[in-house]
Amino acid sequence: MTSSQSLSSRDSWTRLVRDLKMATSQKLTEHFLTCTICTEVFDNPCTLVCNHTFCRKCVVNYTKTRPEAISAKSLLCPFCNKMTKVSAPERPVEEWADDVKPIFIIQGLLDSFGPGSKDTTYCTYCQGDGETTPAVVWCSVCDEALCDKCTGAHNRIPSFRQHDVTDLSGEVKAKGRQKVKVMCREHKQESLEFLCTDCKKAACQKCCIIYHRKCDAVVTITSQIMTMKRQLRAVKKALSKKEDKMKLRVNEKKLKEKLGRDHFSMMKSNIQSACQKVINQAKEKERKLLDQMEDISYKHIGQLKADIKSGEMSVQMYQQQAELIDQALQSECDMDVYEMYQGCETGDVEAVGDADVKERGRITKVTFRQDTDKLSKSLDDLQLGEIDVMYESELDMKATPVLQDTINVRVSGESNTPDPSDVTVMVVNDTDKVVVTACSNSCVKSFYTRNNETRHSKLRLDGQPLSLTKLTHNQVAVTVWNIKQIVTVEANPDLVLLSTVTTSKQYWGITSLTPSTLAAGSRSPPCVDILDMTGNVLRSISPLHNGNNILRCPNFLCTTRTGNILVSDSGTKCVVCLTPEGDVVFTYSPTGDTALKYPQGITSTSTGDILVTDFSLHSVIHLTESGQFVRNILTQQDGIKHPEGVCVDGHNHVYVCLSLEGVIKVFTC
């Protein structure tokens, strides 16, 4: 191989490495180094406690728009709404994020691939002189790429001889930056090799001697690499789960988008149909008016034509009589004159048209009387229909609930109390449908209002339904505990049985985790099972506390906004929050005045607040998202007696099943 060929091969390899590095840098910048607020590459980034990273200026500006964050002296994450306490709240808001640093991964990526990161292909110093000399080493202390010539100059400086220099020859050139040691900001010549687990800070050897002498645990970073990697893998696993959940949410939104498009298309057709009906009615009235006018005009014109013909005949007779008189006057016979005179005296010469005969119902005048004001008012009052827009709103947990409605679950033909145990609300064809399980009636019922009339639908089952959960906008899953079944039911608008799944256990409470998984509570054995839609048990959760199972009678379940499972257990008289993996997030089992006696229905609001009913205390209890008691939001004074199922809708309504009374009370906050 000639020297020119060797040089050409080396240049090709250099260009390849450069292109790969540029492509990697661009991809990392687009996907990992971009602020989701300003959509630009991170400028002075900071990572909040939720591990979301933003530009400091962006997160501060966002926090300034949220009064609750200002009052809490915290930075608010725009992505997940978690708050990060600031270290110096007395400082101006603009400085709150100054002490919040980015995680080392983000900072490392920015250093390597962000704006201002240097290219290791060519010598930095030679590029400053306008030359493009290939670099052979990288000095991590100087943060510069050096060619052979500049490396020699670099090594001749005594203070530079101990710098950490990485070889960039061959394949190492493209990834040489990954071996860079991080130097201490205070002690420039010392690398960060230690970790103070008390202070949670990396330190060099001098920092350990000066600042961490009294700390209990200072270890080498190398010794913690395996632990860090294990934790990073756990974080990655958690992120993957969040990614999967977010993908499911996106898919649900896409489905809702398609349903929304179809719905709006149907609404457009309905509006056009309503308008066409009005047009058809107007055209029918037009046709009737025109037909009536044609009939009247035919009669009127006919009468006028008859008058004209009669008049013309009278004219002829008058002319004839006048001629006879002329002849009599010109006659020399006196008798001709006398006879004509006699005829005129007796009226024989009068024309037929002179007879004063009037027909009854004779038309004298035809007009079209139009009340313009009345027509205008009718058009203004014309009701083709109305477009109602319902917005999702947050339940005001500080407000006093007001009773708005009472739904009697007993329908015609039923003699016994229906015993409503669980309830949910769905919006089907722009109509709110209240779906309830009636255990003693062995059926599922729905109630809704159409054309100002209250209507219902009833679906009989083979067993006794207890709990239900919403699957889609018009489908629910129901546990039929006594015959070991889970059934799916559709409301469109009447209730229709879609499927029946036979299970291995008697399930009481149920909640939907994802479109393809359910969580169901069993008493024997006491546990919460994660099921697929065919009833297969994917995982069984039986958390222990002091050697005892926390669960005994998990009668009611619901899913939180973060995807965790809330369990209301009447056996252990507590509320438990579980992850789908089986970890216990919190347990609410207070004593004293706030102790639970017989917890039943449970639900979670869009803000994360928890409502749980207590059958024996005749109350609905409000807990925070972390399981802290707030207050009894509804009590016996509000008409609450032996409550079971509870749910909230998107319009500030709370629905409570009163099983012994056979009604559902609806409250507005």
Briefly characterize the structure.
The chain is of the alpha+beta class and 669 residues long. The protein is built from ten helices and 36 strands.
Structural description of this entry:
- The chain is α+β, with helices and mostly antiparallel strands and 669 residues long.
- Among the domains are: 107 residues; 267 residues, 6 Propeller (Neuraminidase), CATH 2.120.10.
- Helix 1 packs across helix 4.
- 26% of the residues are buried.
* Main sheet strand line-up: 11-36-35-34
Helix content: 25-40%
Please mark out the parts with pLDDT under 50 across 5 or more consecutive residues, or reply none.
Answer: 1-26, 170-179, 351-357
Biggest β-sheet: count, sense, barrel? 4 strands, antiparallel
Give the CATH H-level superfamily of the domain at 402-668: TolB, C-terminal domain
Distance between the termini: 85 Å
Q: Architecture of the domain at 402-668, CATH level 2?
A: 6 Propeller
Total count of helical runs of at least 4 residues:
10
Total beta strands:
36
Structural class: alpha+beta
How is the CATH topology of the domain at 402-668 named? Neuraminidase
Q: Proportion of β residues?
A: 25-35%
CATH class of the domain at 402-668: Mainly Beta
User: Rounded to an integer, what's the Rg over CA atoms?
Assistant: 45 Å
Q: Give the overall average pLDDT.
A: 84
Per the principal axes of the C-alpha atoms, what is the gross shape? Answer: elongated
